[in-house]
Amino acid sequence: MQSQHTLHRPSPCVGPQRDDELRQYLTFRLGGLEYALDYRNVQELRPLQALERFATDGEIISGVAVSRGVIMPIVDMRIAFGPRPPQHDPRTDVIILKLSTCVMGMVTDGVTDLVTLAGSDIKQIPSLGTDAARNDAQDIDYLLGLAEQGTRRLIVVDIDKLMAIRRVSEDKLHAA
Questions:
Q1: 79, 92, 105, 110: most buried, per Cβ within 10 A?
Q2: What is the CA 148 to chain-centroid distance, rounded?
Q3: From CA 12, how far away is CA 35, in angstroms rounded?
């Protein structure tokens, strides 16, 4: 999946996935784990080197690029989910996302494939025990659940929530 591709998606369904409803998910690797996001949010896949970048060297925002005439931020999820890799591999994948509020690129360790999951295939993440843990769970509301495909374990994410900019409360700022 290293070449430039435009992805054709089924028309979007509104609302949460029903147990019997089948949806396609694009899977990708980050920090040794495998994630899945709803394929309807994927506009295209591009190698990082194929993007016309005109600003670079941020922390998590690794730059701004142009794709098909659209200016978009490029978020390096490898930094957000772990230590920064020493350099970009020429095969580094960028998933161009069409979110509810914008278009943006997401750098990953690599795109794996496309899988079809029913709503019943996605199991809730086990509940957290303490009140503090439950409060922290609100900060990770982008995790929809876990799915298994053979021997693979996929972490299913709501990419709109994951990529949303969130305000940090004062008490959390002081605790950090």
A1: 105
A2: 18
A3: 20
